[in-house]
Amino acid sequence: MKKLAIITVAIALSGATIHAHSVENPAVQKRMDVMKEIKGAMGVLGSMAKGAIAFDAAAAGAAQNTLIEQSGMVATTFEANETDPKSEALPAIWENWDTFVEMADDLTFAAEGLDTTSLDGVRGGLGNIGASCGACHKKFRM
Ligand code: HEC
Fold first, then answer.
1. Strand pairing partners for 89?
2. Of 63, 92, 106, 119, which residue is most buried, by most CB within 10 angstroms?
3. Are 65 and 125 in contact (CB under 8 A)?
4. Helix-, strand-, coil-residue percentages of the chain, each rounded to 5
5. Is the distance from the beta carbon of residue 88 to the nearest atom of ligand 1 less than 6 Å?
6. Cα-to-centroid distance, 78 and ligand 1 (Å)
7. Mutate which of 29, 34, 38 to test ligand 1's pocket (most atoms within 8 Å of Cβ)?
8. % of the chain exceeding 90 in pLDDT
9. 77-122 residue pLDDT tens
């Protein structure tokens, strides 16, 4: 019983530690969550492309849908110029809003163009998608 209590306290404390380091502004958390979803989908496709996991057309299609959906959320979740100590978003976003939205659209477009019916298709289209992440991060992320 005593052991269990110690473990419970340890978990509670570690939870508190995580909380202290988390994002304070829920609007910033929301846009970060969009990026995390995007990263997760890219992870699935990237793992398939390099053979770390088996190619699966249904899973590739689901990841593609996530990319399309979430890149479509970028404009709405970033529109308000919200700040947070944890944020890596540059002020340039709101100074060049149209360019930022265009770059989000580029990602949507690249994701829509991905052929998820074959491993070769995924391998062939991933470069375009990755380039759109990199282009936007270079300009708009610390
Ligand atoms: C239209 C611009 C844009 C595109 C396209 C874009 N990102 Fe981002 N991304 C950002 C910005 C801006 C941030 C920083 C947000 C913040 O910290 O407030 C970010 C942050 C992130 C983060 C960190 C999230 C966190 O929890 O702090 C990850 C991971 C990420 N992006 C992955 C990707 C991947 C993978 C792609 C391509 C599939 C991509 N992004 C495409 C603009 C973009």
1. 141
2. 63
3. no
4. 75, 0, 25
5. yes
6. 11
7. 38
8. 85
9. 999 999 999 999 999 999 999 999 999 999 999 999 999 999 999 9
Give the amino acid at 103: M
- Residue ranges covered by each domain of the chain: 24-140
50 CB under 6 A from ligand 1?
no
Q: Element (H or E) spanning 75, and its range?
A: helix 74-78
Q: Which atom of ligand 1 is nearest to the CA of 84?
A: 18
Q: Are 67 and 46 in contact (CB under 8 A)?
A: no
- Does CATH number 1.20.120.10 belong to domain 24-140? yes
Give the nearest ligand 1 atom to 132 CA: 5
